[in-house]
Amino acid sequence: MRFDLGDLRLFLAVVDAGSITHGAAAVNLSLAAASERLLGMEAAGGAALLVRGRRGASPTRAGEVLAHHARAILRQVSEMRTELSEHASGVHTTVRMLASTAAITEMLPERIGPWLAANPQIDVDLSERPSVETVKAIATGLADLGIVSDAVDIGALHVRMCAPDRLVAVMAVQDPLASARRVTLAELLERPLIGLTGALQSHIDDHALRAGRPFRPRIRLRTFEGVCRVAATGAGIGIVSETAARRCRRAMRLGIVPLSDAWASRRLLACCREPQELHRAAASLLDYLTQGPAL
């Protein structure tokens, strides 16, 4: 029976996500490649590891045994890397980081550049993930650090404050709504909408359904700036980070109205399993991004 570390990370990602599709995405594999590897693991082990259904995938008894040992193995590998890194000299190191849409597009580009410049022997493997998936990945050992919204259940992870992350509605300055002091998501759902692609939009979509109707945008764009530019023309209303909206307003005529929903006033948190388990590079980046005490 041969399982490599990639197999174990994939299997745990599937178990934690409850879905082969989402698990494959968490470890940057296509659905076809992930399915083939999982079938290979079951053939090598001589037992079914997953129960596959229309609502997702869950571990069998054998799968639960594998998940238990896989977590222990990956934890030991992480500890080994931490100890070896203390003795390494001149070795190129990579910090594995997962982050939310707002962190990747607004906070990290400005903050992380000076740290990378000061640490030329360290690379950062950065991927965008919804905060819920990031928490599961950090707990499993699939990544070193995560930047998540404080709206998510952190569980037993170590967390520190990074930055505020308030969401606002953006629209043309001539739109009647532009003079409002605040607005709810439910009110916006009655209007033409401009959407994002990515983790933040998934979060907004979930709250829209809770408010009583789906978020149906006329178009979805990849960046906050793209949403702001289209919204400024009067084509619809978008929801973006307040930091991004204020930055974009310097270059265009843009109305900005805060969302009054409680879930829209968030904080970005840095998280890891235990700071003492981090290798030196990851610990340095955590300290640099937060520069404050644990919460």
Automatic annotation (TrEMBL):
The organism's place on the tree of life at top rank: Bacteria
Entry protein name: LysR family transcriptional regulator
InterPro entries associated with the record: HTH-type_LysR_regulators (IPR050950), LysR_HTH_N (IPR000847), LysR_subst-bd (IPR005119), WH-like_DNA-bd_sf (IPR036388), WH_DNA-bd_sf (IPR036390)
Alphabetized GO MF terms: DNA binding; DNA-binding transcription factor activity
Keyword DNA-binding: yes
Residue stretches making up the HTH lysR-type domain: 3-60
Family of the protein in this entry: Belongs to the LysR transcriptional regulatory family.
Cited Pfam families: HTH_1, LysR_substrate
Lineage: Bacteria, Pseudomonadati, Pseudomonadota, Alphaproteobacteria, Sphingomonadales
UniProt keyword terms in alphabetical order: DNA-binding, Transcription, Transcription regulation
Species for this entry: Hephaestia caeni
